[in-house]
Amino acid sequence: MSRHRALASAAIALTACVAITAAAVDRFPMFATLQAAQSEVHLPGNGVSLPVVLTEVKPEYTREAMQQLIQGTVWLSCVVGEEGVITDVAVTKSLDKEFGLDQAAIDAARQWTFRPGRKDGKPVAVRVTIELTFTLK
């Protein structure tokens, strides 16, 4: 195959890939939606109401953390989306990375449901802080 013919074939294949990708993004714009949602996250106040907790799930101790007698609080920065579910979560104050309590807090928070925050009467994504406490009896 000549070099010219190989380059032409590669250009056709690349064009086909770009066209297929563009069609897929138009038909399944899930990443575009996620990016749009992330750029429109509000903070409470100035006409933005706080989300209201509907379902709260308590975090579970890991066996290792119980054996180490670890107690305290994990703070999570979360985005409650327009549908009332947590769409983004990050630990802002860690209690325990080694024995799994930070991850247990994240897993529990992801199961919470909310009545979403509102702005101008419409549901909006709101960034909130959730504080989860681990206490041994």
CATH fold-type name of the largest domain: TolA/TonB C-terminal domain
Rg measurement, Å? 23 Å
Question: H/E element string?
Answer: HHEHEEHEEEE
Strand content: 25-35%
Describe the main β-sheet briefly. 3 strands, antiparallel
> In the CATH hierarchy, what is the superfamily of the largest domain?
TonB
How many angstroms separate the termini?
A: 76 Å
- CATH second-level architecture of the largest domain: 2-Layer Sandwich
The largest sheet has its strands arranged as 3-2-7
Assembly annotation:
single chain
Structural class: alpha+beta
Low-confidence stretches: 13-19, 21-26, 31-38
At the first level of CATH, the class of the largest domain is Alpha Beta
Number of domains: 2
Structure description:
The chain is α+β, with helices and mostly antiparallel strands and 137 residues long. It folds into two domains: 39 residues; 94 residues, TonB (TolA/TonB C-terminal domain), CATH 3.30.2420. The protein is 36% helix and 28% strand. It has four helices and seven strands. The strands form three sheets. A three-stranded antiparallel beta sheet has the order 3-2-7, with helices on one face. A hairpin with a 5-residue loop joins strand 2 and strand 3. It is globular, with a radius of gyration of 23 Å.
